[in-house]
Amino acid sequence: MSLKSLKAREDDLSSPQRQLELLSEGIFEEGELPTFKDKIAESGHFPLKPKKLEILQLNLGYMCNQVCSHCHVDAGPDRKEIMTKETMQQCLEVIKNTGAHTLDLTGGAPEMNPNFRWFVEEASKAGIKDFIVRSNLTIILANKKYHDLPDFFKKHNVHVVSSLPFYKREKTDKQRGNGVFDKSIKALQLLNEVGYAQPGSDLKLDLVYNPSGAFLPTNQAAMENDFKKALKEDFNIDFNSLFAITNLPISRFLEYLIASENYEDYMYSLVDAYNPAAVENVMCTNTISISWDGWLYDCDFNQMLDLKVNSKVKHISEYNEDLLNDRNIIISQHCYGCTAGAGSSCQGSTI
Amino acid sequence: MSKTYYDPADLRKFGEITEWSEELGKKFFDYYGKVFEEGALSAREKSLIALAVSHVVKCPYCIDAYTKDGLQRGITKEEMMEAVHAGAAIESGATLVHGVQMMNKYKKLSM
């Protein structure tokens, strides 16, 4: 695994344009596999339209203490894109007036944004029902200044959603870096200690499972049982739910698929597993994704592919929920990742 | 025409066998699908049995398919290798038990 982002390596694949070209060439251009547009048109889902907005997802920056090999954000310590306090203030205005019931902070490691704590304090006053922070866990142990994050999360009743690719060391470290598993386990224990995922506690701690390789996740409930049993027996760790998330073929995961000669097989797997029922619930129909610099996207993946919303309103400074809800969602072949099997979203399976 | 007997991409075309014999192909795939559903054995256990048998019948397509299936189900590589050994032990046992036949014949022919 490389210790640098695609961007820092000046890799071709750091270009969203290049990724979109790759996703439209070859098997899709030659008609071996149907394009996503043609596929959803078969069941009358084109153009894809939003339903009621439920989730505002804010990307506080691409900086991260980890360089995971599957990262769709191409995040890492070398990424300097960070949301400014000014953009955060614009976001707060939107949060105060939105009809969405969930606020979802992500990154990179959102905690590395210097204004993270100020922002969480302010945002938690807005009366949002479900306030999520996506924490990579190791950040809690990365530096002394982060050690009190479990208490900070507790104080603001933050719903913590954390990646843990597997309940065994080897697969986790392979995907996320050496030592990540042990630190993640320690961080989960710290979260349990302050009350997360404990009986009678409202503090929610969910885990994200994503396959560590070129294969799709299996049944989410079965995987949750395996995780719960193993983490309890081996480390006395409790958590609430497991979200099984399919890796989308973009950014560093796309790099891996191509380098390991798994790209075509993976796309075949996604298309074979296409489930029209999952199209009904894709997260772009209930989410707006906001980038570190305030641009608006249909989802986090479209953000990384620089596919801004197809609406007159494209930036947080001109945010208008009614206008946004009237847009057509932008799609490409990466979208097959969200419609395979039981569906996939930042909240896990969708059916 | 491919110059090798096995092409990994042919696995994707497995379903096409139905085109030349729809009734039998359909019956086979219905049966196949049913076999691997959750039953008295879990789908996970069946996946490991399938992996072991794939090795015994030396089917490269099946090995690819059930290694991937195992990964998807969260089956560990240690579990997969033990399943392969279970298959191999039966296969080598099947060879070795014929040693008794050899011994019988030897004894019969010897004074």
UniProtKB/TrEMBL annotation, chain A:
Its cofactor is [4Fe-4S] cluster. GO terms for molecular function: catalytic activity; iron-sulfur cluster binding; metal ion binding. It comes from Zunongwangia atlantica 22II14-10F7. Residues 59-196 form the Radical SAM core domain. The lineage of its organism: Bacteria, Pseudomonadati, Bacteroidota, Flavobacteriia, Flavobacteriales. The keyword Zinc does not apply. This is Radical SAM superfamily protein. Transmembrane segments: none annotated. PANTHER family: FE-S OXIDOREDUCTASE, SLR0304 PROTEIN. Residues 216-349 form the Arsenosugar biosynthesis radical SAM protein ArsS-like C-terminal domain.
UniProtKB/TrEMBL annotation, chain B:
Residues 23-101 form the Carboxymuconolactone decarboxylase-like domain. Pfam families: CMD. The keyword Oxidoreductase applies. Keywords: Oxidoreductase, Peroxidase. GO terms for molecular function: peroxiredoxin activity. This is Arsenosugar biosynthesis-associated peroxidase-like protein. The lineage of its organism: Bacteria, Pseudomonadati, Bacteroidota, Flavobacteriia, Flavobacteriales.
